[in-house]
Structures are given as structure tokens and as C-alpha cells.
Write a structure and sequence with these properties.
This protein has about 70 residues and is mostly beta strands. It has a domain of about 40 residues. It has 1 helix and 5 strands, in the order αβββββ. The longest helix is centred in the N-terminal third of the chain and has 7 residues. Helices cover about 10% and strands about 35% of the residues. A 3-stranded antiparallel sheet has the order 3-4-5, with no helix packed on it.
């Protein structure tokens, strides 16, 4: 079942008129889905920092999280 969902994740999906979305693979991986318990943490930069958010996706039995730094718009 997970392989079917993984294949379906590679196709663009219409979210609203003129808006489509595609699931990105996890960094350093070709996977779009994680087949184990997992959770997401969001942490802002320290005060006086660059106003970024750090998205850390933790998965069971994985030593380090998948991390994405989100920069401010503008």
C-alpha cells in the first residue's frame, strides 16, 4: 500500500482554481512518505536572527531529523 501512495505523491494535485501542489521528496531521499511513526517540530530563529523557521521532521529509528529552513518572504 505504501508503494502505491508513494507513486501517487509524485503527481501534481489541483488544490484550487489555478493552484497546484506537488509533494516534495525528503532531503537526501527519494521518499515522499515515511512508513514509521514521525512528527514535525517548528522552531523560529532566536530573537535578532534572520526571522526564519526551522522545520524538523523526526522519524522513529532515524538519528537526525529531515530539516528544511523556511526563509521570510520579501
Amino acid at each position: 500500500a505504501l508503494s502505491f501512495v508513494e507513486q501517487a505523491c509524485q503527481l501534481p494535485e489541483t488544490i484550487d482554481r489555478g493552484i497546484t501542489g506537488t509533494m516534495m521528496a525528503f532531503p537526501t531521499s527519494t521518499q515522499h512518505m515515511i512508513g514509521r511513526r514521525n512528527y514535525l517540530t517548528l522552531h523560529p530563529d532566536a530573537p535578532g536572527g534572520d526571522n526564519r523557521y526551522w522545520a524538523n521532521w523526526w522519524a522513529e529509528d532515524v538519528a537526525y531529523p529531515y530539516t528544511k529552513v523556511i526563509h521570510p518572504v520579501g
